[in-house]
Structures are given as structure tokens and as C-alpha cells.
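Quick start: what a row looks like.
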Amino acid sequence: MRDCKRVFILGSTGSIGRNTLKVIEQFPDRFKVVGLVAGRNREALQLQTEKFGPERSVLVAEEGLEAVKRALEEVEFDVAVCAITGSAGILPTYWAALKGARLALANKESLVCAGRFITEAAREIIPVDSEHSAIFQCLVGEKQREVEEIILTASGGPFREREDLESVTPQEALKHPNWKMGPKVTVDSATLMNKGLEVIEAFWLFKLSPERIKVVVHPQSVVHSLVRFTDQSVKAQLGVPDMRVPIAYALSFPERLPLGEELKLNLVGQKLEFYEPDTERFPCLKLAYRALEEGYPYPIILNAADEVAVELFLEGKIAFTKIPRLIEKTLESSNFKEPASVEEVVQIDKRARELARQVAKWL
């Protein structure tokens, strides 16, 4: 057990958290669960606690964020899996970074909103998002100065070829053609906002200017991302669309774990297509680039407005096509100053949500 890594999972009952536990269960001699944090699912957290026996488990809905902070301070861990969905993960991710452990980062919103503060605080970040994991893997052993651009792939979501987007229902938007994800990420994938947030995340992870971070639509979700080098050669990472692969890589890096034949990609007969994203029909991607180029606090406002818009859409209160409209109007109506701390990021996020709800009444 000498080399057994101690793992603290933030967001243990969500999709990433459950898949992380599957990986850990497959390699009990390599990893030990020492901390579990969940949002509201008491029953699932209790079952996980009984099965994995962590030193601390926290249900945020009952104990609050301060209990998460205390747990992170009191428990010793080697890796924090940061998988709390949305801006709720900003402070826990930052607190985990301050501990000096590796961050296996799945919560893209924490970097979108607080990238400056988290990257400064973190000793090591290994991305879990499949696209950023792919870029990270392609860059191992390469020189930063020889990177010309990185290329994030997007499936295009379920409506890539659909003409009528006005009539899209929440049930339709939640049916992703390739990946099994939580509802927020699935809707973001349908609007291309997920890719927009990933562009901003990539900016903080790989230190490239926005014009060197590209997006292509790849419907098969086999090529997870690519890197083009200055000699015009291109490296890509391919694999089945299963989050256990990037999770295992983030936990075990620089080693790789034998995950088994079920995750083996059959290359024979594979069809690989790439298209330019349609930012006229799916303007969220364009909005994300604009927020990145304008800088703080606009990415915070972008993310907050998106979370409100997706929530209202899933509740049936706004149409699918109103999601980018609400985000754009919130960005235009905002007048917030650049944050000087993570705490100020959280305050701007709160105020931007309030503004977005007001904007929604005008649409």
C-alpha cells in the first residue's frame, strides 16, 4: 500500500464522481478514497461512504461549504478530483489547490471564472475533460514554443443538422448522441456553450492566446482533440467516448492503467469527419470567445448567465434559442469590476445570476 494514492472526490455522486469510483474500485491497490463531497444526494453519498470508507464525507445541502473547507484542511490527500458541476465548484477547487495536491480537474467552470487564482495556487493540474486530457497527452514531451495551435473537437450535439431549433424540448436536448453526462453539460453541448467554456479553460491550462485555440466539429467523438506544431505535423488522441479513460489518466499520470478490453477502440471501419462550427446557428461559442478576449469579469458573467439560462430552459420557461440571447443581453447589461480574489469572483457570479434572471423577464 506504500504507493497507494489518497483520493478526495469533490462531486462524488455526479457522473464524473461515479466514474472515478469505478476506476478506483478496479484498482484498489493503487487508490484509496479518503474524502467524498456531494451536493444533495444523501442516499447515494451514504452508499458510497459505506462502500469506500472515507475519512470524511460531506453533504453540502445539509452541512454547507464551510464543512467542505474543513474536510479539505483536515484530510491528507494526494489527488483531489474536482467534479462539482458549475460555479458551485469554484471555492472547493481553490481550497483543494491550496492544499498542494494534484488537481484532477473536471470542473471547467472553476477555471472559466477563477482561472488566474486557481492556476497560481495549484501545484499541478491534470485535466479530466476528454478534450483537455487529449491536448495534455499530445503535449507530453513537446516544447511549448513549437506548438502552433490546439484544436478542440466538438460532437456538434444532437441538433447539428436540425433546421428548427425554436421547437427543441428539454427532453430532446438531454439526448446526447455519444456521451453520457449530467443535464447541464448535455444542454451546453447542444448549444456549443460547453465548447466555448472549454476554450476558456484551455486558455488557462495551456497558456495560449485565444486565436491559437481552435474548435472543429467531429460528430464521431473518436478524436478527442489535436495539436498542430510549427512543422505542421498534427498529433491527435483517439479513444472510445468513455470518461473512465481521462479520469484514470489524471489519477495515475505519468503512468497508464490497464483499463481492459471493453474500452478498446476498434479502428477498422471508423469514419472520421471534421467540420467548421456553425456559430450563426449556435452563437454561444462566439460569445465565449468574445468574453475571453474582453477578459475579467466577462467569463464569470458568461458562465453565470449560461447556468441561469440552462436552468430556465430545463424548467420549460424559455425556448432553446433564447439561451444565447439571454447570455448576450446579460453580458451587455453588466457593469462589474475585475475581481481581486476568488471571494470576489463568487460575489460577481452571484450578482451576475441575479442580473440574468432580470434579463430573462425582458426576453
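That is the whole record. The radius of gyration is 20 Å. The beta strands are 5-10, 31-38, 56-59, 79-82, 102-105, 124-127, 147-154, 213-217, 223-229, 234-238.
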